[in-house]
Amino acid sequence: MVQVKLIVTGDDFGYCPRRNQGIVDCFLAGAVSNVSLLVNGSAAADAAKLARRYNIPIGLHANLSEGSPVCEVLKTNSSLLNEDGFFHGKMGFRTALSKGLLNMSEVKQELKAQVELFHELTGHLPPHMDGHQHVHVLPEVRNVFAEVLEEYGIKYTRVPIEPGLHKCDWITPSLMDFYLGVEEDSLNTVDVFTSHGIRWPDIYIGLSTMGKNMSVSTICSAIDAAVVEFTSKAPSPTHPTPRSRTVTIELMVHPGYPSVPPIGGCGEGPDDFSQSWERLHELQTLIKPELQSHYKSRNIQLCSFKDL
């Protein structure tokens, strides 16, 4: 049987105290094995303390789209800000980028400031770094992101190309359009990250299993199908004998107790996503014993990026 190393990453650690508590509860239940910290989140310092207290493996969730920058000089008069003085938002960032309005040297400045703040909060550099709302795989941003990772010696990232995504007919058309855009950007990012010596797990899962679409069966079938597809690929110079090697997977999750305004967020208060019942739904699904027993039956070992 193929051995699978599964990294279950709880994103948005630091977003608010209730999100932090939910992620910690999942970690203590053995349902999350790794977390990704929003250093501009309103509860980032608290999250870093919790990670230290419970020995939770922690990386950086680089944020260029929600809330406020952490770099002092970019807090006023920066191309990264909208007229209200906050980041442009998930879609606003993409629009500003496509119009050539974003200054890439400011993107680099902010990414470096977030790495430095992460180091200050946790006492170490992040072993992995990905992008909030997948901004790190966008055109131009991907190059700057790769440079920053290489500069700090951060080895691992996330490349959100999800096997079988096109067949997931339960995803709404508007969301599917966004996901397919993320996939296309990710495919165009592979060569950039590879040329900078950056690595990522063999398989990514998390778009098809997000929020209300998460269930024990969607997670199990996504993992099983992805492993079968990966191990049946013809050997290549980079993966000589896939059948005999360990397969690595990252499952992106967003568990937590729903945010209660005005507490939370990254400077603007919590968004609808963080206030919704879907956070709790993910938490309750991830801690189900049936999921843990499925992992055991498939020789799936939970781990963190540090264990790769």
List keywords for this structure.
single chain; hydrolase; TIM Barrel; alpha/beta; metal-binding; carbohydrate metabolism; Glyco_hydro/deAcase_b/a-brl; magnesium
Topology overview:
Elements: E1 4-13, H1 17-28, E2 34-37, H2 44-54, E3 58-62, H3 90-98, H4 104-122, E4 129-131, H5 141-152, H6 173-187, H7 190-195, E5 203-205, H8 216-231, E6 247-253, H9 272-275, H10 278-286, H11 289-297, E7 300-302
Parallel strand pairs: 1-2, 1-6, 1-7, 2-3, 3-4, 5-6
Helix pairs in contact: 1-2, 1-10, 4-5, 8-11
Structure write-up:
This protein is an alpha/beta fold and 308 residues long. 40% of the residues lie in helices and 11% in strands. It is built from 11 helices and 7 strands. It has helices at 17-28, 44-54, 90-98, 104-122, 141-152, 173-187, 190-195, 216-231, 272-275, 278-286, 289-297, and strands at residues 4-13, 34-37, 58-62, 129-131, 203-205, 247-253, 300-302. Strands 1, 2, 3, 4, 5, 6 and 7 form a 7-stranded parallel β-sheet that branches. It starts with a strand and ends in a 6-residue tail after the last strand.
